[in-house]
Design goal:
Blueprint: E1 5-6, E2 22-26, E3 30-36, E4 44-45, E5 48-49, H1 51-71, E6 84-96, E7 105-117, E8 121-132, E9 135-148
Antiparallel strand pairs: 1-2, 2-3, 3-7, 4-5, 6-9, 7-8, 8-9
């Protein structure tokens, strides 16, 4: 059985804005996450996850790769008392093919395309795809900005 990783170790988001449940795998250049679409989610509209919710899920998945370097050291040990802020700086491309219904489970994968670290902040470009029951929901490229406060 694969080891699943708590998303809280890599993202500052908390409910109701947390749009990832578990990290299934993570490395320096790729990540795969799982998210259960539940009725009480703030992005649910008429039993369907909205476009904004789907994009937020993709962005949080993407940011886990870069945010990981703020929360975990080179020996894979947690860094204590880290506070980061991050946001989508731009969306290069997003194509939404379908929206998942409540009760579905989204699997999102992201790959690091480029990264620029200044020592004060990090910017990166990520490509991502999201699926639900084998159906392609979203594909695109997102630029992120992450900084320790």
């Amino acid at each position: 059985m694969e080891k699943v990783i708590e998303i809280h170790n890599y993202l500052p988001h908390r409910k109701p804005m947390l749009m990832v449940d578990l990290i299934m795998s993570i490395g320096h250049e790729s990540v795969e996450t799982i998210f259960a679409v539940k009725e009480n989610n703030i992005f649910i509209d008429n039993g369907v996850l909205s476009e904004a919710g789907l994009i937020e899920n993709a962005a949080q998945t993407c940011s886990a790769i870069v945010a990981r370097s703020y929360f975990v050291d080179d020996q894979e040990k947690d860094k204590p008392n880290v506070d980061v802020i991050g946001f989508i700086s731009s969306i290069k491309t997003i194509k939404i093919h379908s929206l998942p219904k409540t009760g579905g489970e989204i699997t999102t994968t992201a790959h690091l395309r480029s990264r620029f670290d200044t020592g004060v902040y990090t910017t990166c470009m990520m490509s991502c795809t999201s699926y639900c029951n084998g159906e392609l929901l979203l594909e695109g490229e997102i630029n992120l900005f992450i900084q320790e406060r």
